[in-house]
Design brief:
664 residues; disordered C terminus; six-stranded antiparallel β-sheet; four-stranded antiparallel β-sheet; 20 helices; alpha+beta
């Protein structure tokens, strides 16, 4: 039975690839010739491609769940004693399975564009679905020819080799699917951009269609990056939330570009300006996703997250990236003349603020890109081994984020086309004064003289209070009766609420990052059972060590009691685990969490002279980093719920105004 299911999965994958080839070619020709039947083929083809890929993915999942060791991938990434959750997540905890998840999500986005794109002009829809299918063809070929998840073993072993123990964790179990929904979701924006370039037409209706896809991808990327950061914080045991690791950067760059794309698409939609720039960002956002896939899977850069793989796969991925990026940018250069801006705007306007926002986000993404890729360039060109670490990124990246935080509340309240700075600032002077006062208060209270925390607190307050002031202004609070203000607030478009919530979320994350980095207390020592030591305001007692047997690991568990002012606050049980099958150790930090601070204890190896290496941290406001990320994602969902109706309305208007099929 198991063997049959695996064969079915392999067969479904090949048929899905063949359908993707048809979908890439036929609707594109139909759009060019205006043959409706050929264009219409895109919808059933996209649906069939998705369902066949889903069958293939389901077959691989079945092989993992039932421990079918006739499949090579199950042998190398699973074990019969592994908990069921990790049997399932083991499907994408490896290169081949994660690529199948990647192509499944690619097919899902294509199918959703087919199902919900009824209001799209037929030619644009056919071309976008063709481009999406072409991307799928490249990845189907990559999987089938270089990374087949259904390869069989001639002699199935009695048991498997287990999944990498670092991946046997709930945080990382759900991190890749969200990340891929973001990465791959940007393919839809790319497909729309290329379709618009082929058509030679970019207008407000196009921007209305492209924004929901970009917004959805950005929200999923936000959740995926936050989950990855949270996992690194509590699982790797080094006590940080962001390492500027190449793989972390690979997901962060598309996030920054997607944020810029979201903001510039607003200008195209409202004012028919920044068309060329918006198209370029749509190409770059997905381009950076492809570069990310190359970094993670080529083995060219070492990282705790990277899939160690042979370079031939890297060459193939580089080829895919070069083909799609090069092709789209060549088309962009050829069509640049067709994308003239219509809207004119003054220096003090919402458009100008959004241009500045775009510049800051794009340049910060470029800084991250150069920092990530420079060690590789230095090694290839100058034969020098370099490592670019956190000090470079913190110095080079932070100023752009500070500038962005300063601009956001002002830009959000600017009127379109032309505004007056004094009028925009009227409701914001109080917010600014309060933010500066909070920063000054923190400067006065803190014992150290670092400016990081006061500046971080002031910027966070400026963003959060500025978002509130924007809503206050829109409700005309203070100018109309309270009941009327409340009614106005309730009736505000969800996109306005989403914008304010997301901006406030960014402020909360900035507060968490700044205060954690400025005020963290660290203690590293060798401690013996019975020892008590002081860390900040806490007395930590090392009570004992126990050997514990887990479902598929052996653990050395330390027991620590934290006291404050003589009162027990928490019992902490950090672990050092060994997974016998994989032969790998992992560190499990013990964290006592609260909104104000985290107590973080890690137990290391036993020392020669007796005792254990123990690291203790007090991390102020650590959870605000992820709280802010959640709030940003909620803001995105709010905006997304608004878009559904406005996309349909905009599309209907555009179709009725321009006829069923827009002219070439």
């Amino acid at each position: 039975m198991g063997r049959m299911v695996a064969e079915l999965g392999h067969f479904a994958l090949i048929v899905a690839a063949l359908i993707a080839v048809v979908q890439a070619v036929v609707p594109m020709i139909g759009a060019h010739k205006r043959w409706y039947g050929w264009m219409e083929l895109a919808v059933p083809a996209a649906s069939a491609q998705f369902f066949l890929t889903l069958i293939s993915f389901g077959a691989l999942t079945w092989a993992f769940v039932t421990s079918d060791f006739s499949v090579q991938l199950v042998v190398t990434n699973s074990h019969s004693a592994k908990p069921m959750l990790y049997k399932i997540t083991g499907v994408w905890g490896n290169h081949e399975g994660s690529m199948l998840l990647w192509v499944l999500i690619l097919a899902l986005f294509g199918a959703m564009a087919a199902w919900f794109g009824g209001n799209l002009p037929p030619q644009l829809k056919a071309r976008a679905l063709s481009v999406q299918a072409l991307i799928a063809v490249a990845f189907f070929a990559f999987i089938i020819f270089t990374s087949n998840p259904f390869l069989r073993t001639a002699m199935p072993p009695m048991d498997g080799q287990d999944l990498n123990p670092l991946l046997q964790d709930p945080g990382l179990a759900f991190h890749p699917p969200f990340l891929y929904l973001g990465y791959v979701g940007l393919s839809m924006s790319f497909s729309f951009a290329v379709a618009a370039l082929i058509e030679g037409r970019v207008d407000a209706a196009w921007a209305r269609w492209v924004r929901p896809w970009t917004l959805a991808a950005w929200v999923f990327l936000t959740i995926g990056i936050a989950l990855g950061s949270w996992w690194a914080y509590y699982e790797l045991g080094w006590g940080g939330f962001w390492f500027w690791d190449p793989v972390e950067n690979a997901s962060f760059m598309p996030w920054l570009i997607a944020a810029a794309l979201l903001h510039s698409a607003i200008v195209v939609e409202k004012r028919e300006s920044l068309k060329s720039w918006t198209i370029l960002l749509a190409i770059l956002a997905f381009g950076f996703s492809l570069i990310g896939a190359f970094i993670v899977r080529s083995g060219i850069i070492t990282s705790v997250h990277a899939f160690a793989n042979d370079p031939t796969r890297g060459v193939y991925l580089l080829g895919i990236t070069a083909f799609f990026m090069g092709g789209a940018l060549t088309l962009f250069a050829a069509r640049a003349g067709a994308m003239e801006a219509k809207g004119v705007f003054s220096t003090v306007s919402r458009e100008s603020a959004l241009v500045l926002n775009n510049i800051l986000l794009s340049v910060s993404a470029l800084v991250v890109f150069f920092g990530t890729i420079w060690p590789l360039v230095a090694e290839m060109a100058f034969d020098r081994k370099l490592s670019v670490g956190a000090p470079f990124f913190n110095m080079a990246f932070t100023p752009f984020m500070v500038a962005l935080a300063m601009v956001l509340p002002i830009g959000a309240m600017m009127p379109w086309k032309r505004g007056r700075f004094d009028r925009v600032m009227r409701p914001l002077w109080g917010v600014m004064a309060l933010s500066v006062a909070l920063g000054a208060l923190v400067w006065t209270l803190q014992t150290g003289k670092s400016a990081l925390a006061p500046v971080g607190v002031a910027l966070a307050a400026w963003l959060v209070l500025g978002a509130g002031a924007d809503l206050w202004q829109r409700a005309r609070a203070g100018h109309v009766p309270a009941r009327e203000s409340l009614r106005r607030l309730v009736r505000l478009p969800r996109a306005d609420w989403g914008k304010s919530i997301a901006h406030a979320g960014l402020g909360i994350t900035m507060f968490g990052v700044a205060t954690l980095m400025a005020w963290e207390v660290e203690d590293i020592r060798v401690a013996r059972e019975g020892d008590t030591f002081e860390v900040g305001n806490y007395a930590i007692t090392f009570d004992r060590v126990e050997e514990v047997q887990g479902p598929n690991y052996l653990s050395t568990m330390g027991f620590f009691t934290a006291r404050r002012d003589g009162e027990a606050v928490a019992t902490l049980t950090p672990e050092k685990r060994i997974y016998p099958v994989a032969g790998m150790p992992t560190t499990e930090a013990a964290i006592h969490q609260s909104l104000a601070r985290d107590l973080y204890v890690v137990i290391g190896d036993p020392q020669d002279g007796g005792g254990y290496a123990v690291r203790t941290y007090i991390k102020p406001f650590a959870n605000w980093i992820w709280l802010g990320s959640i709030i940003m994602a909620i803001g995105g969902f709010f905006s997304l719920s608004d878009r559904r109706y406005r996309v349909a309305a905009g599309a209907r208007k555009a179709t009725s105004a321009n006829g069923a099929v827009p002219a070439e």
